[in-house]
UniProtKB/TrEMBL annotation:
The lineage of its organism: Bacteria, Bacillati, Bacillota, Clostridia, Eubacteriales. Keywords: Cell membrane, Membrane, Transmembrane, Transmembrane helix, Transport. The keyword Cell membrane applies. Belongs to the BioY family. GO terms for cellular component: plasma membrane. Pfam families: BioY. This is Biotin transporter.
């Protein structure tokens, strides 16, 4: 894997870091769970669909780094290492990993249905990493953690993934055609 990044690539990744930070502020608290509904998942999927694995992961890694040092880019204008180490931090920590996988899925030319099914697998990975950290930080039993942190979010997250796939596929095609990005 190529670890050097051009200025253009870094700039493009930074744009998607900013998009993630902006969409993270669309946050709806739920009365029965400490995990809010946010648009971060949509931003992760969209960035990786458009940028591919390498740059998609970079955009999310930058997001975590600037949030981790205290810049208020996480949901509800929060930031700091305590957010990453807290009950909801596992979801955030999964973002660069799933962005890489999402990007790799977007880079191959398979059929749309198979790609969406594969993307659902990355959503399961996000849930797993996040819920395991939630379980360990809060000492809430795993079954209850799943009821609080996964089940209420599945329907909306499926919609986010499908919309990000469709939008990302179309946007990526337009950007490639205009030579604004390259694979």
């Amino acid at each position: 894997m190529k670890l050097k990044f051009s200025i253009r690539e870094m700039s493009t990744a930074a744009i998607f870091t900013a998009i993630t930070a902006i969409l993270a502020q669309i946050s709806v608290p739920l009365p029965f769970t400490p995990v809010p509904i946010t648009m971060q998942v949509f931003a992760v999927y969209l960035s990786a669909m458009i940028l591919g694995g390498r740059l998609g992961a970079l955009s999310q890694l930058i997001y975590l780094l600037i949030g981790g040092i205290g810049v208020p880019v996480f949901a509800n204008f929060s930031g700091g290492f305590q957010i990453l180490a807290g009950p909801n931090g596992g979801y955030l920590i999964s973002y660069p990993i799933i962005a890489y996988l999402i990007g790799k899925i977007s880079e191959k030319n398979s059929n749309h249905i198979l790609s969406i099914v594969e993307l659902m697998g990355t959503l399961i990975m996000c849930y797993a990493v996040g819920t395991i950290q939630f379980h360990f930080v809060t000492n809430i039993p795993m079954q209850k953690a799943i009821l609080l942190c996964v089940l209420p979010f599945i329907p909306l997250d499926i919609i986010k993934v499908v919309v990000a796939y469709i939008a990302g596929y179309k946007i990526k095609g337009s950007l490639l055609k205009a030579k604004l990005i390259k694979l």
